[in-house]
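Your task:
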Amino acid sequence: MLLDSITKENDIKNIPSQDYARLAEEIRQFLIEKISKTGGHLGSNLGAVELTMALHLCLNFPKDKLIWDVGHQSYTHKLLTGRKDGFDNLRKYGGMSGFPKRKESSCDCFDTGHSSTSISAGLGLVKARDILAASGQEENCTVISVIGDGSLTGGMAYEALNNAARLDTNFIIILNDNKMSISENVGGVSKYLNNVRTANTYLDIKEGVYNTLMDVPKYGDKMVEGIRRAKNTFKQMVIPGMFFEDMGITYLGSVDGHDIPRMVRMIQEAKRVKKAVLLHIVTQKGKGFAPAERHPARFHGAEPYDIQTGLPTLPRTVSYTDIFSTVMTKLGARDEKIVAITAAMPDGTGLKRFRNMFKERFFDVGIAEEHAVTFAAGLAAGGLKPIVAVYSSFLQRAYDQILHDVCLQNLPVIFAIDRAGLVGSDGETHQGIFDLSYLSSIPNMHIMAPKNKWELSDMLKYAAVCGVPVAIRYPRGEAYTGLQEYRQPVMMGQAEVIYEESGICLIAVGSMVKEAETVRTALKAASLPCSLINARFVKPIDQESIREAAGSHKLIVTMEENVASGGFGEKVRQLLLEAESPVSLLTIALPDEYVEHGNVEILRHETGIDSQTMISRIRQKWDSL
């Protein structure tokens, strides 16, 4: 295999050009096989194989710098930098990350995981390069940021483009245009790029004229240079809008993203431009694997699958996302004021059914969480009931909008926060372990967490009528079906007492109620009396229930799947201090650090929130009293 000959960065340059297509095919087959076992981002990587090869043919690593927006499409880059053996443990605990990681390779110059950051990061690297090169401290290098058309719907990309337009030094931005983010792209940017893709007249004329004139003896190059000076006017006539050129960024393209020789020529041309230059590459997401070509959204982040059919090999269970999806359609049918907003994730957040049933009340704003939240605030101010469905780690991008535009005005916006807590294989950038802390800091915010699937339904219905800002956070994966018999009506700031005894009192938040049941069973088996309270509300906390528990127990244990700093346990500690309660308190939460990728059960053990570790800590604390 040609792929076996690539053991380190720049080895691709030893591959004969006539073998590029064969290498691309080997890479695709390798990725299809490996990801079928480990899971991972398949569609985006299959679409970027030739693009990545062209970049590696034009760059020298690790001297040159390549920044991947989001980074989920960097698998071929990892292969071409000698990390082939790491794919057996891709996204597993202690194994290779599914995203670029500086600590993993010197060829990864910037850690990524969220969208629309690559141009800002690349611009910073360009300025650092120029300053250090001017003083002789570092050798000059090429800096390239690769951004997808989906990421180009995020406002941060335009903030960076605005600054990049002022450059008088080379900076290459490659737009990897596959018409998709996670789901199909929406909005004006998508329409604009579609127009540019189809404007091939300009490209054909330009290439034909340049090639002909360069053959003219003596004067050919001067004639070409004259045409280059006039090209902006020509582009304005032929390509609709020319948005990037109008900003002051040189536009090259569009180019077939699966034509390696042509991409290499265009990248080399881009390297000669003494300003910011955007190279528009058109690719096909999922290329080379029929199921991924037909269903690119399904294979964005794929679970292990059967190669022949593309169908998942893991058993299908009812998830919290499924429950949210069902309740949303029921709410939409009952109340015409209910509207739904997503940031490019109708499938992932469970809003696809709502979109199909209530198209006029569904809004996909693209990868633009900040806009999504302020847009929701406007909808609420206009008399509607907006529900923003978003992953926990992505909502943090809109902190200011939650604080300034929603909660300052006390507007009834509902945040349905999926993937809260440990999410596993995507790692540090995707763990939803900070939302309780950052949302709790905002006045007028109300935060709930359900113990099981029925409570998620009840909380959503309550939030739709309570008339204040509400966040409901729930975990990834299978919805818990235990404790069905405990279904106390949801009331603002009230916890739910499930078991009432004495001695030890467990107060658990959301997903931790299930773990608390296991812990309580073990403690009871050891003849330790134990109460269990379902916190339900993280803000406002149920002060009365906590004070009562403090008066009738020797030890209170708080349990949450959130970092300790700013979390539920800290609020309970502050309340007990103010009440001068003599009760002992043990707070169980995640450590104040980023949690790497891996199986969730392994991560729970490593971070100390698995049932066995908690049982041990509680018994040790109890024995010390």
About this structure: The chain is about 40% helix and 15% strand. The two ends are 65 Å apart (CA to CA). The first helix runs from residue 20 to 38.
